[in-house]
Design a protein that fits this description.
Strand content: 15-25%
Family: Belongs to the CEP19 family.
InterPro entries: CEP19
Shape: globular
Protein name: Centrosomal protein of 19 kDa
Subcellular location: Cytoplasm, Cytoskeleton, Cilium basal body; Cytoplasm, Cytoskeleton, Microtubule organizing center, Centrosome, Centriole; Cytoplasm, Cytoskeleton, Spindle pole
Number of domains: 1
Distance between the termini: 61 Å
Keywords: Cell projection, Cilium, Cilium biogenesis/degradation, Cytoplasm, Cytoskeleton
Number of strands: 3
Length: 161
Amino acid sequence: MPFSAKRCGVNFSPPSIVVIYEDKDSGKMRKRVIPVRNFSQFSDCGKAAERLKHNARHRDYLETVSLSQLEKLHLLLREHLRGLTLEQSLTAFRDGDPGEEDLNKLSDEDLAQRKAQMDEVFERNRKQKGDPDFVYDLEVEFPEVENQGACSWDEESDDGF
């Protein structure tokens, strides 16, 4: 292992992972900026982190960085792409993936805050009739989800329902 990662972070513009590492051969501290390509607000952070960790160009520099840390950095990038501020992204980072958060367990105060954040992002991304890129009847094809298990609702029951 010729490199030892000391710190990791993100750049929002352009989207990239920044690694401060020690070059063990020379003993010097260096910085490597790794661009995050083909990543959007809808990307799977786990798959993106795994792809980056196993990338031949960056593998040696990321060897000492855990996959969960890379996943969290991708989560910060994704939340920024969704329109959240740095403070909101860090809140999402501390609280885990907001898509996986159980909102039923939140206090009324925290729930109201999460709803206000969602409303703010919704309003920012909403297209209205006056917008130049507004399309009236937009049809979108969504990719098939891999490894989607069967749902019990899809099964026919013996009750005749």
